[in-house]
Structure formats: C-alpha cells, structure tokens
C-alpha cells in the first residue's frame, strides 16, 4: 500500500495503521479471504501456529 502513496513511507504507514499482522508477497487485499460469515472461522497457519480468521476489524 505504501507504493500507492509515494509521499508516505512504509514506517509512517506502519505507525498510522497499527496492523496486528503483516503478510508480505501477496496481492493487495489478499487477506480478505481469511474471514467469512459471522459464524464461520477460516483456519490458516503461519509456521507452526494455527490461527482462525473471524472478522475484519
């Protein structure tokens, strides 16, 4: 996303957006597939840790 706004640095956006998790090497908005309906959890794995996507917030 930083590449869309040349006047903003990656460090600035990290401070401004306060993301909980950054995933690199994927297209913009790829993370939208990590959640579904309000009662459905999407499992995904990072290393040895399994997480459940619940909702975008």
Strand composition percent: 15-25%
Give a short account of the largest sheet. Answer: 2 strands, antiparallel
How many extended strands? 2
What is the H/E string? HEE
Q: List unreliable stretches of 5+ residues.
A: none
Radius of gyration: 14 Å
Count of separate DSSP helical elements: 1
How are the strands ordered across the major sheet? 1-2
How many structural domains can be distinguished in the coordinates? 1
Quickly give the structural class: alpha+beta
- Overall pLDDT metric: 86
Report helical residue fraction.
10-25%
Shape: elongated
Distance between the termini: 18 Å
Structure description:
The chain is α+β, with helices and mostly antiparallel strands. It has one domain. The chain contains 1 helix and 2 strands, in the order αββ. It has one helix spanning 10-17; strands at 42-46, 49-53. Strands 1-2 form a two-stranded antiparallel ribbon. Strand 1 (42-46) and strand 2 form a beta hairpin. The longest helix is centred in the N-terminal third of the chain and has 8 residues, at 10-17. It is elongated and about 40 Å long. The relative contact order is 0.13. The mean pLDDT is 86.
């Amino acid at each position: 996303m930083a590449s869309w706004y040349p006047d903003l640095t990656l460090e600035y956006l990290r401070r401004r957006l306060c993301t909980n998790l950054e995933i690199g090497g994927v297209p913009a908005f790829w993370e939208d597939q990590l959640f579904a309906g309000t009662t459905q959890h999407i499992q995904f794995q990072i290393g040895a840790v399994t997480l459940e996507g619940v909702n975008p917030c």
